[in-house]
Amino acid sequence: MPKQRDVVKMTDAEIEKFFGEVKSLNVATLNKDGAPHLTTLWFSLKDGNILFETYGTSQKVVNLRRDPRVAVLSEAGDEYSQLRGVSITGQAEIVDREPRLSQLMGEILKRNHPGIEGQEFEDYVARMVRKRVVVVVRPEKVMSWDHRKLGATAAP
Questions:
Q1: Which domain range does residue 57 map to?
Q2: How confident is the model at residue 2 (pLDDT cuts 50, 70, 90)?
Protein backbone atom coordinates (compact mmCIF):
# COMPACT_ATOMS: atom_id res chain seq x y z
CA MET A 1 0.00 0.00 0.00
CA PRO A 2 1.51 3.37 -0.99
CA LYS A 3 2.27 5.99 1.62
CA GLN A 4 -0.22 8.86 1.81
CA ARG A 5 2.62 11.27 1.03
CA ASP A 6 3.23 9.50 -2.29
CA VAL A 7 -0.50 9.50 -3.13
CA VAL A 8 -0.99 13.25 -2.62
CA LYS A 9 2.23 14.38 -4.31
CA MET A 10 1.62 16.43 -7.46
CA THR A 11 3.29 15.79 -10.79
CA ASP A 12 5.29 18.60 -12.44
CA ALA A 13 2.32 19.28 -14.74
CA GLU A 14 -0.05 19.43 -11.76
CA ILE A 15 2.28 21.84 -9.95
CA GLU A 16 2.40 24.12 -12.99
CA LYS A 17 -1.40 24.02 -13.29
CA PHE A 18 -1.77 24.75 -9.57
CA PHE A 19 0.51 27.79 -9.79
CA GLY A 20 -1.62 29.00 -12.69
CA GLU A 21 -4.70 28.91 -10.44
CA VAL A 22 -3.33 30.71 -7.38
CA LYS A 23 -2.34 34.35 -7.07
CA SER A 24 -0.45 34.69 -3.78
CA LEU A 25 2.88 33.33 -2.64
CA ASN A 26 4.27 33.32 0.91
CA VAL A 27 7.99 34.15 0.91
CA ALA A 28 10.32 33.43 3.83
CA THR A 29 13.80 34.91 4.14
CA LEU A 30 16.19 35.02 7.08
CA ASN A 31 16.73 38.15 9.15
CA LYS A 32 20.22 39.01 10.38
CA ASP A 33 19.48 37.35 13.75
CA GLY A 34 18.31 34.15 11.98
CA ALA A 35 14.61 34.74 12.64
CA PRO A 36 12.31 34.17 9.66
CA HIS A 37 10.86 37.14 7.80
CA LEU A 38 7.58 36.16 6.12
CA THR A 39 5.62 38.10 3.52
CA THR A 40 2.93 37.42 0.94
CA LEU A 41 3.03 38.72 -2.62
CA TRP A 42 2.05 38.00 -6.21
CA PHE A 43 4.36 36.02 -8.48
CA SER A 44 4.95 34.47 -11.87
CA LEU A 45 6.73 31.40 -13.26
CA LYS A 46 9.43 31.32 -15.91
CA ASP A 47 11.61 28.40 -16.98
CA GLY A 48 10.85 26.42 -13.82
CA ASN A 49 11.70 29.35 -11.54
CA ILE A 50 9.48 31.53 -9.37
CA LEU A 51 9.63 35.28 -10.05
CA PHE A 52 8.43 38.05 -7.77
CA GLU A 53 9.00 41.78 -7.61
CA THR A 54 9.53 43.96 -4.59
CA TYR A 55 11.11 47.24 -3.54
CA GLY A 56 14.89 47.09 -3.76
CA THR A 57 15.15 48.34 -0.18
CA SER A 58 12.63 45.88 1.28
CA GLN A 59 13.61 43.71 4.22
CA LYS A 60 13.37 40.56 2.12
CA VAL A 61 15.89 41.97 -0.39
CA VAL A 62 18.22 43.08 2.42
CA ASN A 63 17.98 39.54 3.80
CA LEU A 64 18.54 37.87 0.43
CA ARG A 65 21.61 39.98 -0.35
CA ARG A 66 23.11 38.68 2.90
CA ASP A 67 21.82 35.09 2.59
CA PRO A 68 20.19 33.92 -0.66
CA ARG A 69 18.35 30.99 0.92
CA VAL A 70 14.60 31.32 0.49
CA ALA A 71 11.43 29.31 1.04
CA VAL A 72 8.13 29.92 -0.74
CA LEU A 73 4.68 28.43 -0.25
CA SER A 74 1.39 28.68 -2.04
CA GLU A 75 -1.70 26.83 -0.85
CA ALA A 76 -5.42 26.47 -1.49
CA GLY A 77 -8.40 24.69 0.05
CA ASP A 78 -10.75 25.33 2.94
CA GLU A 79 -11.35 21.73 4.01
CA TYR A 80 -8.82 18.97 4.71
CA SER A 81 -10.04 16.93 1.73
CA GLN A 82 -9.45 19.92 -0.56
CA LEU A 83 -6.02 21.06 0.67
CA ARG A 84 -3.43 21.64 -2.06
CA GLY A 85 -0.09 23.33 -1.95
CA VAL A 86 3.48 23.61 -3.10
CA SER A 87 6.42 24.44 -0.84
CA ILE A 88 9.81 25.22 -2.37
CA THR A 89 13.20 25.86 -0.85
CA GLY A 90 15.98 27.23 -2.98
CA GLN A 91 18.36 30.03 -3.79
CA ALA A 92 17.33 33.54 -4.73
CA GLU A 93 18.93 35.75 -7.36
CA ILE A 94 18.23 39.48 -7.21
CA VAL A 95 17.87 41.05 -10.66
CA ASP A 96 18.44 44.80 -10.48
CA ARG A 97 20.06 45.61 -13.83
CA GLU A 98 18.70 46.27 -17.29
CA PRO A 99 17.67 44.92 -19.70
CA ARG A 100 16.88 41.74 -17.77
CA LEU A 101 15.12 43.65 -14.99
CA SER A 102 12.50 45.11 -17.36
CA GLN A 103 12.12 41.80 -19.18
CA LEU A 104 11.39 39.83 -16.01
CA MET A 105 9.27 42.63 -14.52
CA GLY A 106 7.18 42.42 -17.68
CA GLU A 107 6.67 38.68 -17.14
CA ILE A 108 5.37 39.27 -13.63
CA LEU A 109 3.14 42.19 -14.60
CA LYS A 110 1.65 40.31 -17.59
CA ARG A 111 0.45 37.56 -15.29
CA ASN A 112 -0.84 39.76 -12.49
CA HIS A 113 -2.22 42.72 -14.47
CA PRO A 114 -3.56 41.18 -17.71
CA GLY A 115 -5.75 44.17 -18.60
CA ILE A 116 -2.82 46.52 -19.14
CA GLU A 117 -1.44 46.49 -22.69
CA GLY A 118 0.57 48.45 -25.24
CA GLN A 119 2.18 51.74 -24.24
CA GLU A 120 0.34 51.73 -20.91
CA PHE A 121 2.03 48.39 -20.12
CA GLU A 122 5.47 49.66 -21.20
CA ASP A 123 5.04 52.76 -19.04
CA TYR A 124 3.97 50.59 -16.09
CA VAL A 125 7.08 48.40 -16.41
CA ALA A 126 9.28 51.53 -16.62
CA ARG A 127 7.72 52.94 -13.42
CA MET A 128 8.09 49.65 -11.54
CA VAL A 129 11.80 49.16 -12.31
CA ARG A 130 12.72 52.58 -10.92
CA LYS A 131 12.53 51.38 -7.31
CA ARG A 132 11.87 47.67 -7.58
CA VAL A 133 13.86 44.53 -8.27
CA VAL A 134 12.90 41.06 -9.44
CA VAL A 135 13.79 38.05 -7.37
CA VAL A 136 14.30 34.75 -9.18
CA VAL A 137 13.82 31.72 -6.94
CA ARG A 138 15.71 28.68 -8.23
CA PRO A 139 14.12 25.60 -6.64
CA GLU A 140 16.32 23.06 -4.91
CA LYS A 141 13.59 21.08 -3.13
CA VAL A 142 9.90 20.97 -4.08
CA MET A 143 7.21 19.47 -1.87
CA SER A 144 3.60 19.29 -2.99
CA TRP A 145 0.28 17.89 -1.87
CA ASP A 146 -3.22 17.56 -3.28
CA HIS A 147 -5.58 15.96 -0.79
CA ARG A 148 -8.27 15.71 -3.47
CA LYS A 149 -6.32 12.64 -4.66
CA LEU A 150 -7.34 10.88 -1.45
CA GLY A 151 -10.99 10.92 -2.48
CA ALA A 152 -13.66 10.28 0.13
CA THR A 153 -11.14 8.66 2.48
CA ALA A 154 -9.45 11.97 3.31
CA ALA A 155 -9.58 12.64 7.03
CA PRO A 156 -7.52 14.84 9.32
A1: 4-94+136-153
A2: confident
